[in-house]
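Running this now, will post back.
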Amino acid sequence: MAKPIVVTDADFEVKVEKAQGVVLVDFWAEWCGPCKMIAPIVEQIAEENSGKLTVGKLDVDHNTNTAMKYGVMSIPTLILFKNGQPVERLVGYMPKERLMAKIKPHLN
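Update: finished.
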């Protein structure tokens, strides 16, 4: 079962920007209520799309450089990267169906 990987400022370039394929990064924080609500959905997406999608979680409180680089102003923010380039940005809590509707077109 694929679980989300932890991504940090130190390894973001290797795990996301230089990665081939599709990577979904969840920008979150421990104190964020909506982040806690969306976390199980993000885990389900990671499990159900194993092999097609890598899911990473970046704690914005401990990794401010990457959050600032990508202009993350509110959380949760999910950014979908394809071959290292951001192709989709999803801000705030949303149900799994809406998330997958945005992600699926990039999973070819």
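Residues 30 and 59 are 8 Å apart (CA to CA). More later if anyone needs it.
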